Amino acid sequence: MEITKKQIYAIDAILIVGTLAVLILIAGYAQPLIIAPINELETSNTSVLFSFEKGNAIYLDDNPDFTSPEKIFVKDNLIINLKPGTYYWKAEGLLESEVRTLTINSEVDLRLKDAGENYEVVNSGNTRLKVGIYDNNTLVGNVILDVDKSANVTGTKVVGGQYE
Amino acid sequence: MNKKFVLVLCILAIVSLASNTLALGVTPGRTSLDYSPGQEKDITFTIINSEHKEMTLEVSVQGDMNSSIILESTSIKMESSDEEKKMHAKLIMPNNLSPGKHNANIVIAQKPEKKEGSGQAIIGAVLAVTTQVSIYVPYPGKYLEGEIKVSGTEKNKRFAITLLSLGTEDIGKVGAAIHVYDSSGKEVKILNTNEISLRSSETREIYTDWDVDAPDGRYKAKAVLNYDGQEMSLEKDFEIGEFLLDLQQIFVKDFKLGGIAKFDMLVKNKWNEPITNAYAEMRVYDEQMQEIVDMKSATYNIPAGEQTTMNYYWDTKDVKQGLYNSNVILYYNGKKTQQDLKLDVGQDKIDVIGLGYVISSENSSSGGNKGLVTILIVVIVFLLLVNLAWFFVFRKKKMKEHNKS
Q: What 3-state class would DSSP assign to B103?
């Protein structure tokens, strides 16, 4: 069958465009689509919503090489409680998604309640605290408080900071 | 009148409760900076007014770098409508800091509240929170710190070592040999990690995997790191599997309804250490879930990895034929594991229903994924072949024909 040069070029174009279109479609279909959290999110909220489509697991690690990742099987949406720190994460479907980073900032949050003769001090932040108890500017003791834990203290000043 | 009085009382109670709590927060709790002498760094932190109270805060700096931090303001007024307030401070990195970690604390203190007119404090104590500023000054030469992390399942373990290069010089090559010891101190495995290079102040991981070929139990991983000819070691205790006395089988032999049923319960110590003073308890319930009998075995010592048959007895006088709910609890080393069962009591036999395992694939979706991946690969290969065939065979041929004509 005789075909013209024009027809040859047309076949070239159809093949190139068609192949590219199919490859783009495959890539779009196979790669998970990440919705949340946004890349480089910084928050002090330890409950993070991971939302994505076309994936069935997420990998979470504290280093970008993913040498010791935590693999969590999930469909679409999941809230994960994380400790303060920087995390790298990606979703896995047929292919892997881009790698995103996420930083949970530590939050020092103290509450002091009147408990009659002494005070109840509560760690309502997201990190372990070292709480110094002062009586007239003299340090009289330290209390290590885990998240959501409390202790009864007596003094005139209570100072809380992130524990090493 | 009464309703108004109750309402006023409620409001007073709420105000009183609210006043009896002080709350203050700051984020981040720590800002870590690399040391660069003489440079200025901006430090931003957010003060949180979680109780939405009007308060005046005093801000000050403490620690061995207090003279290097200049605060934007030393007093802040928080309104009740303020949920948080951002603050800035400037750090001028001091010269000639000694190697190691240096800290400064920015202290945010809440002044005690006063009752209007009375001058009396509601909460007499001062509440303060601190945000730390840490500078790490590198040690001269090569200096390495690390931490071992052990993850994975009882079939496969990964040993990852997080390495921090805290010296002034880069590290050309670092790798580790990981020696695994069982609870008796016997070496059961040696594994070698990959090798990497580390720049000064850089954090990276090296790792190795172990296809576990040892029984469940407690182990110790000792990593001997070699970095440019220098050695250091790290240790980490870890466990394979779960400390578990595994209930494998229960059976009753030579049984006649109305007589004494002797239960033989086969258990296996899956741990690599002996389990002492273990015993079993079995409770049987009627249709209304009322307990009919509570049986206990004697205590047993079970060597590591061994099986033992525990016995207990049930007097079946007045017991009717039928299906009974039951549970078995194993007590050992302060731990207990429970399994729910059914007992099918017949005239001359008792069948124990409910022991066994359902084995399922780890991830059933991965099979479907593999199928789709295969289809996609086939499509891509087909496209590749079509393109190759066209551009390198047919097109050339057609062009030749065309040129000839």
A: strand
Residues B42 and B90 in one domain: yes
* ipTM tops the 0.90 cut: no
Between B123, B129, B205, which is nearest A114 by CB?
Answer: B123
pLDDT tens digits, one per residue of B264-277: 999 988 888 888 89
Residues B133, B169: one domain?
no
Report the C-alpha gap between B374 and B377 in whole angstroms. Answer: 5
Tokens of B23: 């709350």
Mean pLDDT of B32-40: 90
Interface test with A, best of B52, B87, B129 (most A CBs within 10 A): B129
pLDDT tens column, A101-142: 999 999 999 999 888 888 999 999 999 999 999 998 899 999
In Å, how far from its chain's centre is CA A15? 43
| Structure confidence by residue, pLDDT tens digits, B356-381 | 432 223 344 445 566 777 888 888 89
Number of domains in chain B: 3
Buried b (16+ CB within 10 A) or exposed e, B165-176: bbbeeebeebbb
Q: Is B302 exposed, middle or buried (0-12, 13-18, 19+ CB in 10 A)?
A: buried
Domain coverage including residue B196: 144-240
Contacts with A4 from chain B: Cβ below 8 Å: 402
Which one of B15, B16, B30, B203 would you mutate to disrupt binding with A, by most A Cβ within 10 Å of its Cβ? B30
Residue B273: C-alpha distances to residues B145, B210, B247, B302, B308 (Å):
33, 21, 17, 9, 15
Burial B80-119 (b: 16+ CB within 10 A, else e): eebeeeebebebebbeebeeeebbbbbbbbbebbeeeeee
State the DSSP code for B113.
P
| Cα-trace Rg, chain A | 27
pTM: 0.67
A21 within a domain of the structure (yes/no): no
Q: Is residue A120 assigned to a domain?
A: yes
Residues A59/B199, Cβ–Cβ less than 8 Å: no
Whether residue B114 is predicted with pLDDT greater than 60 in this model: the reply is no
Q: At what angle do helices A5-30 and B395-404 cross, to 10 degrees?
A: 170
What proportion of chain B, given as a percentage, has pLDDT over 70?
88
Shortest distance between the Cα of A141 and any Cα of chain B, in A, equals: 15
Q: CB–CB of B52/B73 below 8 Å?
A: no
Domain that holds residue A87: 31-104
Could you tell me which of B62, B385, B187, B329 has the C-alpha nearest to residue A15?
Answer: B385
**A114 touches B: beta carbon within 8 Å:** yes
A119: in domain: yes
Spatial separation of the C-alpha atoms in residues B177 and B175, rounded to whole Å: 7
Report which residue type is found at B386.
V
